[in-house]
Amino acid sequence: MINSVIPAEYRSARLEDFGDSINQDDIKWNPYGFCFRGDPKIGKTHMATALACEHLRPTHPHTIARLDESGTEPKYIYPSGCFSWITVPTLLARIRSTFNNSGETEFDIIKKMSSTPLMVLDDLGAEAQSDFSSSTLYALISERRNRHRITIVTSNQRLSEINAWNPRITSRLAEMATVRLPSTDRRLTKPVPDALDRPGD
């Protein structure tokens, strides 16, 4: 089974990290989830993880908060099965591994990932485009939508680019709320073009 492990650099992610640069009305909960799009390094993954954690803390009373190694920052441990965090390339690689008779099938993985109440699906479009990746991702996103599971997606691609390789995925993403992040590289603090305002989306 795929574990819901949040990478270390995002475990302390908070919505407050973005200060006044985010309109709070943009992050009101959407029953279909969220789609964070734009150029690399503007904070899509950070925001997606922060939003997921913000939702989990008050809704799961069994969430455990412990201080991290520094003794100052809380580290949250969520109940098993309530949350999944995975990149699209990793997900597809895990599914491909079942083709070697690993004992787990593609259907098994899709079924498990579809049942998780909340999932962050990071870096959609970073995978090599193929019929396999396209159909697998649509199956997962659509099944989660039909089962009323919340999915938070990040992607460097515009909707028009995603539409070129799978219009059905674009249709599902269009139902989600889009949050406009400040067009600044959070790692280098240099301005980058605002991909969300480009024509063609």
What this model shows, in words?
By secondary structure, the chain is α/β, with parallel strands linked by helices. It has one domain: P-loop containing nucleotide triphosphate hydrolases (Rossmann fold, 3-Layer(aba) Sandwich). The protein is built from six helices and seven strands; from the N terminus they run βαβββααβαβααβ. The strands form two sheets. A five-stranded parallel β-sheet has the order 4-5-6-1-7, with helices on both faces. It has a two-stranded antiparallel ribbon with strand order 2-3. A hairpin with a 6-residue loop joins strand 2 and strand 3 (74-77). The longest helix is centred in the N-terminal third of the chain and has 16 residues, at 44-59. 28% of the residues are buried.
Write the CATH architecture name.
3-Layer(aba) Sandwich
Average pLDDT over all residues:
77
Secondary-structure-based class equals: alpha/beta
Instruction: Please indicate the count of domains.
Output: 1
CATH class: Alpha Beta
Number of H/I helices? 6
Number of extended strands: 7
Could you give the order of strands across the largest sheet? Answer: 4-5-6-1-7
Query: Unreliable segments (pLDDT under 50, ≥5 consecutive)?
Result: 60-68, 187-201
CATH superfamily: P-loop containing nucleotide triphosphate hydrolases
The CATH topology: Rossmann fold
